[in-house]
């Protein structure tokens, strides 16, 4: 973690105070280099709750925040279709920007955002993604150490009930950055690219939409080919019959033990969630869930399903305690500390980039490359063939 003891705190505002926005509050408060100054949300009830709970100023629009609040940085956690306009507005005001994944609703939007940040001379960081998880960082460090040889394969699998959780309409609309491949694939492809070095070459994929009562891309199988000959697969199924917590010793995505339940109960829950809900009911359920959906520090390692790295002389997989390494010498368990949290790592990277201590790994160009894989996977499924990639960037040397 970076030290900020002798520097003025970076004053930051959050745009969009839903699940993602709220999840960053503990990490902002824990970093001495940041001070949460204001939030933006169109819902009056959300604004009132933020004022009462955190004592910050609250505004209905980003324009109002920029006009009245003294901020140095903006975290854009609003619906994806709004990201381009809000990032351009923040860059135009010379504010550093952290933007939530997926970076944008389209590759053109993402490239415009990156160009705007460059022109303004401000930092643009894309996160949170699960590539910030400590086990993923530790995997990359083992790879960089060279003892296991080159990465040849990365396989990652995640099974959840994503499609049946409370959703706004835009979260299910691919054109607005919705659906599993855009919203959850952005985690998987970030992990894959980080572990394989960044330079993906092509994508072949099949996406699935198999519930007409909840129509959206709800699952995918994606094959990513890399320039150095490595290959990766990403499997995601959000239809809620099987949960990848079963592959992770019962530990859930955020590092807490997940309540055990028989497979029949999971199926029943998914089926019950298919009952029609009005947009108003769905929004209220989503707002209620936002207050509790993503906890802070956890006793176990977070994960995004199970990820296994196959190198020339060994293999690495995540565990709730850290990593397990398999070589000719046998199995080695490598425990990792549960702290700092992934979002604390995001804030540390953001602060270091703002203070020019270190260039960000997850900068705008990296975010564009991740989004390109998301779009290519969807296009590949439609066209039934490989899609070549044009905007990939190599991984920066890790600190």
Notes on the protein architecture:
By secondary structure, the protein is α/β, with parallel strands linked by helices. It folds into two domains: 10-128 and 342-362, 3-Layer(aba) Sandwich (Rossmann fold), CATH 3.40.50.720; 130-341 and 372-388, 2-Layer Sandwich (Dihydrodipicolinate Reductase, domain 2), CATH 3.30.360. It is 34% helix and 22% strand. It has 13 helices and 15 strands. The strands form two sheets. A nine-stranded mixed β-sheet has the order 14-13-12-11-7-10-9-8-15. Strands 3-2-1-4-5-6 form a six-stranded parallel β-sheet, with helices on both faces. It is globular. It starts with 9 loop residues before the first strand and ends in an 11-residue tail after the last strand.
Note the topology.
Elements: E1 10-15, H1 19-23, H2 25-30, E2 34-40, H3 44-54, E3 57-59, H4 62-68, E4 73-76, H5 83-92, E5 96-99, H6 107-120, E6 124-126, H7 134-145, E7 151-159, H8 180-183, H9 185-196, E8 200-208, E9 219-226, E10 231-237, H10 263-273, H11 279-290, E11 306-311, E12 314-319, E13 322-327, E14 330-335, H12 342-354, H13 364-383, E15 387-388
Parallel strand pairs: 1-2, 1-4, 2-3, 4-5, 5-6, 7-10
Antiparallel strand pairs: 7-11, 8-9, 8-15, 9-10, 11-12, 12-13, 13-14
């Amino acid at each position: 973690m970076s030290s900020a003891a002798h520097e003025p705190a970076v004053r930051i505002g959050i745009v969009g105070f839903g699940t993602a926005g709220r999840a960053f509050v503990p990490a902002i408060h824990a970093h001495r280099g940041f001070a949460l100054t204001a939030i933006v949300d169109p819902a009056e009830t959300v604004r009132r709750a933020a004022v009462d709970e955190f004592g910050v100023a609250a505004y209905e629009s980003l324009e109002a925040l920029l006009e009245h609040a003294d901020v140095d940085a903006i975290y854009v956690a609003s619906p994806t279709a709004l990201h381009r306009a809000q990032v351009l507005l923040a860059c135009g005001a010379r504010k550093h920007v952290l933007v939530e994944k997926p970076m944008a609703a389209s590759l053109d939007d993402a490239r415009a955002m990156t160009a705007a940040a460059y022109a303004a001379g401000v930092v643009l960081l894309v996160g949170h993604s699960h590539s910030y998880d400590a086990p993923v960082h530790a995997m990359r460090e083992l790879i960089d150490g060279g003892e296991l040889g080159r990465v040849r394969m990365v396989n990652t699998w995640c099974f959840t009930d994503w499609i049946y959780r409370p959703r706004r309409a835009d979260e299910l609309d691919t054109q607005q950055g919705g659906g599993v491949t855009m919203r959850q694939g952005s985690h998987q492809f970030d992990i894959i690219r980080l572990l394989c070095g960044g330079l993906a070459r092509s994508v072949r994929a099949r996406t699935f939409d198999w519930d007409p009562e909840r129509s959206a891309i709800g699952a995918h199988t994606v094959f990513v080919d890399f320039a150095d000959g490595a290959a990766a697969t990403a499997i995601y199924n959000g239809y809620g019959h099987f949960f990848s917590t079963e592959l992770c010793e019962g530990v859930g995505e955020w590092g807490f033990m997940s309540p055990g339940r028989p497979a029949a109960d999971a199926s029943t829950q998914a089926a019950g969630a298919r009952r029609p809900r009005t947009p108003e009911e769905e929004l209220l359920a989503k707002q209620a869930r936002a207050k509790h959906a993503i906890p802070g520090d956890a006793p176990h390692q977070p994960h995004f399903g199970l990820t296994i790295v196959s190198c020339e002389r060994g293999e690495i997989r995540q565990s709730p305690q850290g990593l397990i390494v398999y070589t000719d010498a046998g199995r080695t368990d490598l425990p990792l500390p549960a702290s700092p949290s992934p979002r604390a790592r995001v804030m540390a990277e953001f602060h270091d980039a703002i203070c020019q201590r270190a260039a960000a790994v997850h900068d705008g160009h990296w975010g564009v490359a991740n989004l390109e894989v998301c779009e290519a996977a969807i296009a590949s499924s439609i066209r039934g063939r490989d899609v070549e990639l044009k905007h990939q960037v190599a991984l920066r040397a890790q600190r």
